[in-house]
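Justification of resources, computational component.

The compute hours requested in this renewal are based largely on the per-chain cost of generating structure records like the one below. Each record pairs the submitted sequence with a full structure-token output. That output is archived, and it is also reused by downstream analysis tasks.
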Amino acid sequence: MQHNSNSTRINMKHFATVALLLAAGVTAYAQPGQVNTTVSGSASSSVVNLTPGAPASEYQLAGNGTLGPFTLRVINSSGAPQQNSSCSGATKLYLPAVSGAAVFRHENGDLLKGNLTGGSDCIDFVANQATCVRVFQITGGTGRFNNSHGGTLTLTMTVAPILSDSSNNPVFFTVTGSVTGSI
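The structure output for this chain reads:
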């Protein structure tokens, strides 16, 4: 039995190419686990009415991390001011986040969706910024996130005003922060 060395080389090249493509496909569509990303962008009031009588906020963010580059849009409303030991003092205001949702859009078009399950704003008037936390339960997605359900992602942000209206009320904000959790 005689082997043709050209045939063997071609078959090995095909095998290596197929193995590489399969590995890339498994990597691209593997179910993600732990998430650790950074985000930045802007925030403003939203025209969406999630909770009657409560203003809604909208965040337009972009980030990169363990899931690759993405954009993130969040819409949520906050409840009435409350007392909270982690955000106390004469110059601080605590607001619970009461309803909302998030959509992560990745470069290839894959979407990851989440519903707000908790969070808060701690506004520090002396520092002229707020620490805002939004907790989302994953409710599904498309592409590699098609079967994602039940994981939790926490968006932690520092929000600072950059534009005020004629009454000197802040209306447009910078946002920096991170998203952590698991899918």
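The first strand starts at residue 34 and ends at 51. The chain has two domains: 1-30, 31-182.
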